[in-house]
Structure formats: C-alpha cells, structure tokens
Specification:
- The protein has 432 residues and is α+β, with helices and mostly antiparallel strands.
- It is built from 12 helices and 17 strands.
- Strand 13 and strand 14 form a beta hairpin.
- Helix 2 crosses helix 6, helix 2 packs antiparallel against helix 11 and helix 6 crosses helix 11.
- It is globular.
- The two termini are 31 Å apart.
- The N terminus is likely disordered.
- The structure holds ligand EPS.
Length: 432
C-alpha cells in the first residue's frame, strides 16, 4: 500500500461483506426513492423539502415516504440539533438559539403513521427581526438594504438570477441556518436505519492546514465518544489545540477557516443503490447530497482523488471468502464501501471539503450592486469556523440518502413488511 493509501486506511470498522442477519431487527418498514426519476413519478419515495429564512419565524422540514410503525425519538433528534450548534469558532447566533423540533404531522404516540412527517424549528432570533423580516408590505423600509456583495457567497449570483435589489433577499435562504432542518431530517433517517443495525457518524478530518491524525484502529463507537468530547470534533488532542489556536488567530485578523469532514456508516447490507441507471448509483446520490451543503466544494469516497494517482494493483480491494461465516470478505476498503454504484457491505467512508465561510470581518474587495462603485463585502454576523457543525450536517445528509436507498431496496409500507424483506435478502445472500 502506498503512503497515501495507508493514510486513508479506514478505522477498524471493517465488517463482513454482508450485514449480520442477527442484527437487532425487531419489525420492518418500506417506502422508496430518494430521488424522482423519469418514469417513476407515481412510485412512493422518501423525499424531503425544507423551508424558512435564517431570520424568519421558523424553519420547516417535511419528509414524505417514512413507512408506518417506526419508533420516533424526538429527544434523539433534538440531541443532533444540539450537536450541530456546538463547536469552537461559532459566532453569536448560537448563543441565541436552542434548536428543537416541534412535530406537527406524521407521528402519533411515538410512532410514524406513514403520512408526511413535518417538523417546525423556531428561530429564537426572529424576535429581533420581526419588522425587518415581515411579510407585510407596510413594513418595507424597516431594514437597511444590503448592497455590497460578499465574494464567495450566493449574494451576487442570487440577486442577478432573481432580479432582486436587496442582497438580504438572497442571503436569508442561502444561509447555513437551513442545515438545522436537514439535521432534523437526518435524525429521523437515522431512526429508519437504527432497527437494521446501520450506524452513521460524522467527524472532522482537518481544519485549515491542520490534519487530525485519527487512529485507524478506532471503532465507530470509540470515534463517537472521542469526537463528541472534542471542541472541534477531532480524534487527535494535538490537532485540537493547533486548530483552536488557528481559529483564535483568524478571529483576530477577521478571517475564516474551512476544513474536511469524514462520514462513516457501518452495518450496511450489500446492494444499496444500483449499477443499472446513473441516478440510482449510491455514490452519485451521496455526492449530490454532500455537495448540496452550503460551502461544500469537494467530495471523495474511499481513497477518492488518491485513487486517480495510484495503480490498480494498489487500489482495488481484494476479495476473500469466509466459508464458516458464509460470507465474502475484503482485504481492504479503499473503495469506501461502494462499487458500481452499490454498497459493498463494507463501511461507507465519504469525505467533504468545505471552503472557509465567505463573511469576512475584514472584507474582500467587491462592488456595490446599486451604485456599481468599488466597495468591500458587507459584514453580517457569522462564524469564524463552522466545520465541527458541518460534520454533524454531513452525517445527517448521508443518513438520509442511506435511508432512501434502504427503503428503495427493501420497500414496504410498514416496519414489519420491510423487516421481512430485509431478512429474506440477507438469507438469500448467505445462501448464495
Ligand atoms: C447559522 C446561522 C447564521 C450564521 C451561519 C450559520 O446565523 P446569523 O447569520 O444570524 O449569524 O451563524 O450562517 C452563515 C455562516 C451564513 O453564511 O449564512 C446556523 O444556524 O448554523
């Protein structure tokens, strides 16, 4: 293995090629696609929409396609929302908010009904923006118009595309505040995966130039425990202090920091996604979801870009067979858990690079969109570094895509039905 390959060696979470049929499946579920595909519009699917402005009254998340009979633990979803709020380098907004879901549809007595599930999350900061974010035309003029576009933000492309005169009309929805709704949805998705023994965790691989040296022997449970206790969600105390010092330095100079997060998912069965059509490929769907995150600029699965620099003989994960366990095995997991657009049954490993936030307290050169005169970018309250939160967010969107692909493969309308399908498939693979 090359240096690059061994650096990317996964933690000790390699499991057998196929999930164990003795997974704690209690009953089962179904429901279908994460994406709408041509010709498939009439089929049920797991899909979601989010709504809400950063400083509007509320954020809304609606998820359709969750089958009936799943236990829905709102406290666990709120715990994920709290994880998203944490992290060294966050700005003042997180001191105002205490994000919690208020369920308004699809759940009764702690179980999913099969109908759309809707969560409302209050923006506590709205009380400071009532007039400035009012829907009433009489309140026009209550807010100062934002006219200095920030380089790197949605500001300029947004006003040109939508023919708007106030950059606020773009930035409110472009804001990463929207990820609160996606974390609530991801928390729900994890509860679809939980009965089948599938676990998803996001953590920080690097911030700025400081790479965390994560012990590849750590299990996901160990990794979770260590990274949850870290102020910047890394499993490396030396890197943690360097990162904190770097965030402090950036804060002093009015600068921002990006980073790379890694998401690992274990317990996946072989065969989620498909090789037969481009938009059914699991890796493609994961990349879409991850790159749709605010400030995301790159995605890798397994060795990712390193795979393009080494030989096939160094890269590909050799196959073995464990006769006693009736299962195929792998000698490595450089693929990151997908081959041909399908899960291999090995742990999924995805990495996402996020650029530094584009609101700089020492702003970059820009232009006033009204006067066209030279100006510097506008200053909005923001974070110096939001990468620890980005790890939770990436975990959430991966969980959603896995739940969608899982329901597509084992679909049904109730937990009991999908459990039957899931167990039957594991048995089929075992007897292959
Ligand atoms: C965020 C809320 C925002 C920002 C940040 C993320 O709140 P506010 O704009 O009121 O400070 O802290 O959003 C951005 C960095 C951005 O560019 O919009 C959140 O809830 O995560």
């Amino acid at each position: 293995m090359t240096d690059a390959a061994s650096r990317h060696r996964p933690c000790r979470v390699r499991q057998t090629a196929f999930a164990d049929a003795s997974n704690p499946v209690k009953s089962g579920a179904g429901g279908p696609f994460g994406v709408i595909r041509a010709g498939d519009e009439t089929k049920p699917m797991l899909r979601f929409l989010t709504a809400g402005e950063s400083h509007g009254p509320e954020l809304v998340a609606t998820v359709e396609g969750v089958p009936a009979g799943f236990d829905i633990d709102l406290a666990a979803i709120n715990a994920d929302l709290a994880r998203r709020q944490k992290g060294y380098g966050r700005g003042g907004r997180m001191l105002i908010e205490k994000d919690e879901v208020r369920p308004v549809s699809g759940i009764r007595f702690g179980k999913s009904l099969g109908s759309p599930i809707t969560f409302i999350i209050e923006n506590r900061d709205f009380k400071n923006w009532v007039k400035k974010m009012s829907a009433d035309p009489a309140d026009r003029g209550a807010a100062e118009v934002v006219t200095r576009a920030r380089p790197g933000h949605a500001d300029l492309a947004g006003v040109l595309k939508y023919n708007l005169e106030d950059i606020r009309d773009v930035l409110e929805r472009a804001s990463a505040r929207e990820t609160t709704a996606r974390v609530a949805i991801g928390g729900l998705a994890k509860q679809i995966l939980l009965p089948f023994g599938i676990d998803v965790l996001g953590y920080v691989a690097s911030i700025g130039a400081t790479e965390a040296r994560t012990n590849p022997e750590l299990s996901v449970a160990e990794l979770r425990q260590i990274t949850e206790a870290s102020q910047v969600r890394v499993a490396d105390p030396d890197a943690e202090s360097k990162i904190i010092a770097e965030i402090d330095a950036c804060k002093k100079t009015g600068d921002t920091l990006g980073g790379i997060v890694e998401v690992v998912a274990t317990g996946l069965p072989v065969g989620l996604g498909s090789h037969v059509q481009w938009d059914r490929k699991l890796d493609g769907r994961l990349a879409f979801a991850l790159l749709s995150l605010q400030a995301a600029k790159g995605v890798e699965l397994g060795l990712g870009f390193t795979a393009g620099r080494i030989r096939g003989s160094e890269l590909h994960d050799e196959i073995g067979y464990d006769a006693a366990g009736h299962r195929f095995t792998r000698h490595s997991n450089n693929s990151g858990g997908t081959e041909g657009g399908m899960s291999t049954g090995e742990p999924l490993r995805a990495r996402v690079a996020f650029k530094p936030l584009s609101t700089l307290m020492r702003p970059l050169r820009s232009v006033d969109i009204r006067s066209k005169a030279e100006a510097v970018g506008a200053i909005e309250r923001s974070d110096v570094c939001a990468i620890p939160a980005a790890a939770v967010i990436a975990e959430s969107v991966v969980a959603f895509e896995l739940a969608a692909a899982f329901l597509e493969k084992f679909g049904g309308d109730s937990l009991i039905e999908i459990t039957r399908n899931f167990k039957g498939f594991l048995e089929q693979v075992r007897n292959y």
